[in-house]
Design a protein that fits this description.
This protein is of the alpha/beta class. It has 14 helices and 17 strands. The radius of gyration is 23 Å and the shape is globular. Bound molecules: 5'-deoxyadenosine and iron/sulfur cluster.
């Protein structure tokens, strides 16, 4: 979500002739987009912003702004804490950012804008028609959240749940496709309730419309709340051709007692039933999840239920977090907090268990043929002898990272194959990625030259 917001921030500032740079030293404007979901993310943001004081000292005209959820949460207190900051803008103020920057340029003033609106925040221009060199993109379909899980800060910093109009979403995706994008990830805190409040179309209907977009090859979405995962959405994994075979379905804990305290509104049993149904409809679907360890009052027995659930589901991957108190979140006042040491210990045990399943599932793919969409050069690319081969990175439909190399005399690929869908044979499996040998192109022509370059 923050990646998408940062892209909207960059687009807005482009209109003021600011361009992205990778160097903090040469920047005239630094915007730090912050995340408040866990205490650690907030600490990181403040420590990074603190270090920017030295840059401002060297270059007094430098403008520094802080946006996102921490900005929304802390508001004007931040100006006191960070005297070198010029601007604090909240999650609903992204559209007003260019206006604030212009004022700061002219008046050298300090601004705080954390106003939240009841209305949906449509960003100014979302049009991107020029090739961007990117094969994948995020698209926000809804904002905010009404679920109030007791540990979570999101409803307080992002406001009430609001869905965007399907027409605007489809238009945005069409424009992205024209710029070379081949895969979109539809974003919302709980996509399953998309459109319900506003009586728009349902989320599965939105998927069907997205599926019709010419030139788009793949659709992903995140996140689906288990309590609202509908039969229609489960069936979408069979019926919607471009929908990738992956669902992120956060369980948070395997203990019914803790689920209740978290206000998650489902049980371990109903969750497991949905997993079974998903696998029945789409046998090779990848399932990933989020888990919080050390929620207030979590006993060793509760934690063992989480480990047991992981063994039952055999997730393809897990994102696990140590519980931290968040401002306004109800659980901040819950008794029986778990010690730091206990949380570390539980996290370690959980990570070790999941590592076994991740590797087991990756290893099972060795020897199989997979379709991957090429996203860019692999992380190790620069270490490879660039005269003789290139290393590329793509993802399977199940969201596994696959690296492979292409030699210079290999003419079966375009020089820059970003956006191409190719068939590969998996040769090696690691914990976080797979290594493959390319076999053939599945969809001709690279999608980065404009509208005619795709063949869908
Ligand atoms: N402490 C730890 N983890 C949290 N998450 C959300 N709030 C907290 C918190 N207070 C985790 C949840 C959520 C993911 C995005 O972050 O697992 O699904
Ligand atoms: Fe937070 Fe729960 Fe909403 Fe997810 S569904 S954003 S965890 S309140």
């Amino acid at each position: 979500m923050n990646v998408y917001d940062s892209e909207q921030i960059a687009k807005g500032l482009k209109a003021l002739e600011y361009h992205l740079t990778s160097s903090l030293e040469t920047a005239d404007l630094i915007i730090v987009n912050t995340c408040a979901i866990r205490a650690k993310a907030e600490q990181k943001a403040f420590s990074f912003l603190g270090r920017l004081a030295a840059f401002k000292k060297k270059k007094p005209d430098l403008i520094i702004g802080m946006g996102g959820c921490v900005a929304q949460q802390e508001g004007k207190k931040i100006l006191k804490r960070l005297p070198h900051l010029d601007l604090v803008f909240g999650t609903h103020a992204i559209g007003r950012l260019p206006m604030h920057i212009q004022r700061i340029e002219k008046e050298k003033c300090r601004i705080v804008d954390i106003e939240m609106s009841e209305a949906l925040v449509e960003f100014g221009s979302t049009v991107t028609l020029k090739p961007t060199g990117k094969a994948t993109s995020f698209v926000t379909i809804m904002q905010g959240c009404d679920n109030y899980c007791t540990y979570c800060v999101v409803p307080y910093v992002r406001g009430r749940e609001k869905s965007r109009n399907p027409e605007n979403i489809i238009q945005e995706i069409q424009n992205l496709v024209k710029s070379g994008v081949r895969e979109v990830t539809l974003l919302g805190q709980n996509v399953n309730s998309y459109g319900q409040k506003e009586k728009l179309c349902s989320f599965p209907e939105l998927l069907q419309e997205t599926n019709k977009i010419k030139g788009l090859l793949r659709i992903r979405f995140t996140t689906s709340h288990p309590k609202d995962l509908s039969e229609d959405l489960i069936l979408a994994f069979k019926d919607i051709e471009k929908l990738c075979k992956h669902i992120h379905l956060p369980i948070q804990t395997g203990s019914n007692r803790i689920l209740k305290k978290m206000n998650r509104k489902y049980t371990r049993e109903s969750y497991l039933q949905k997993i079974e149904r998903l696998r029945h409809i789409c046998p090779d679907i990848a399932i990933t999840s989020d888990i919080i360890v050390g929620f207030p009052g979590e006993t060793e027995a509760d934690f063992k239920e989480t480990l047991d659930l992981i063994k039952t589901v055999e997730y393809d991957n897990l994102f696990s977090f140590k519980y931290s108190d968040r401002p306004n979140a109800a659980s901040a006042c819950f008794p029986s907090k778990i010690s730091k040491q206990e949380k570390n210990d539980r996290l370690q045990r959980l990570l070790e268990l999941q590592e076994y399943f991740t590797l087991k599932k990756n290893k099972a793919l060795v020897g199989s043929d997979q379709s991957i969409l090429i996203e860019g050069s692999s992380k190790k690319h620069k270490a490879v002898n660039a005269d003789h081969e290139w290393q590329w990175m793509g993802r399977t439909s199940t969201n596994r990272i696959v690296n492979f190399s292409q030699t210079n005399d290999d003419t079966s690929f375009n020089k820059v194959p970003i956006g191409q869908l190719i068939k590969v044979r998996i040769e090696k499996a690691f914990s976080h990625s797979l290594w493959a040998k390319p076999i053939r192109i599945e969809q001709k022509s690279v999608g980065l030259k404009g509208e005619e370059s795709y063949a869908a």
